[in-house]
Amino acid sequence: MTTAHICIMIAIIIYLGAMLFVGYLCSKQNNDTSDFYLGGRKLGPLVTAMSAEASDMSSWLLMGLPGLAYLSGIADAGWTAIGLAIGTYLNWKIVAKRIRLYTHVAGNSITLPSFFSNRFRDDRRILQSIGAIFIVIFFIPYTASGFAACGKLFSSLFGVKYLTAMIISALIIVGYTTLGGFLAASTTDFIQSIIMSIALIIVFGFGVSVAGGPDAVISHAKSLPGYLTMMTTYNPETGTEAAYPLINIVSMLAWGLGYFGMPHILLRFMAIEDEKKLSLSRRVATTWVVISLAVAVMIGVIGLGMTEAGELEMLHGANSETIIVKIADLLSTHGVLPALLGGTILAGILASTMSTADSQLLAASSAVSSDLFGAVLKNKKKQETMLTDRVTLLLIAVIAVIIARNPDSSVFNIVSFAWAGFGAVFGPVVLFALFWKRTNWQGALAGMVSGGVMVFVWKYLVRPNVSFLNFYELLPAFLISSVMIIVVSLATKAPSKEITDEFELVQKKMAE
Predict the structure, then answer these.
(1) pLDDT value of residue 426
(2) What is the band of 58 on the pLDDT scale with cuts at 50, 70, 90?
(3) CA dihedral 352, 356, 361, 362 (to 10 degrees)
(4) For this UniProt entry, what is the primary localization, expressed as one broad class (predicted)?
């Protein structure tokens, strides 16, 4: 093993050890299920902001987005970044404070599905159960993709077997999440967002320097037809440009709709200690997201400039997503300190993956233990319910490990599909529950089911067979869900006075 690899391993081991230590510290603050799954609503504004965005971005920020820009120019990556930035801001602006207040007023709900049942007085807990099932359907494979990403990173760096690397990564994530629950996941996500930021800064500065400076990077990018414009795209195979269709722009912008239905992000809104501090959280989160997305896109352009300068080999297809890993490897050959910085970059990639995997793991386990089996456990002692919470989390993790065991599986493809699933199943219901007093439980149920079904129908039946409808499944599924909520709510009995009075109470609190 080279000196560079030893330095990289030291940086990563320190990082992983710190995450486990945080989990141990947070475990002392978990007294019941509310603490384990919502941190007792004690999060500060900075932790709320940065943990929400770290759990959102995942390895896609440090791998997917730069790789997309590297390969075909800034159009795809740029429009996606714009959609995500707009979605982030709107989610913080119109949803965050309202859902924090409403979940507290509506039975002190600690999960998104429980909020739906409490909000609409669904005594049979149909909404809670259906919501939990959808969370499990979309989140377990999503968690598996995070485990797989960590395993592939370690495997490629140190030459260990993929399965061994993946299991060790999963054990670390499961370890601190099982110990500290939501508070540990949020605190580690806050730390991970800082590491991700440092990684982006190091890669940006080193990449520009090696590529010959900003002028050289921009000059090379301009020489490629269609590479630096938002209305055209570059084809690396033919060296030609092509028009960027309007339908693609709509598809990329539609990614922003997903935010309204992401359980692991909405939980951060629900968990802040003081809803009046959410405006600070919004400013911090939006600023970080805009800067990080812009830098990630630019890293793809810089990486291509490094290739032109002869510092990196040309990357093709899915390998373009390893551009930051390649830059970290190159940096680590320049001495001990650069090797430690390279290790920090790779720890950043690991952090971005872990910050999403831990939140997904927690959301999936809460769906099972709290939403599906909560009625069975409600009369148990606190110690028994906490044990059940942790055992459930472990079982969910085992299933995710089994799914991720094959290194050649296409588990990564589930990420955009899962994003569409959550956005369509929960997004419209969240918005109508918060903003339309006439919404009832039948409408909410119709919206959830129709949104979930339409994601599958559009993905596997419509897109492959109808060329002019080949756009991201989130948009049509979100629209269908919204229409069904309105139609079914109006066609069925209006909500009771108790429900509408509670709605008005939240409106009044919002105005205070």
Answers:
(1) 94
(2) low
(3) 110
(4) membrane
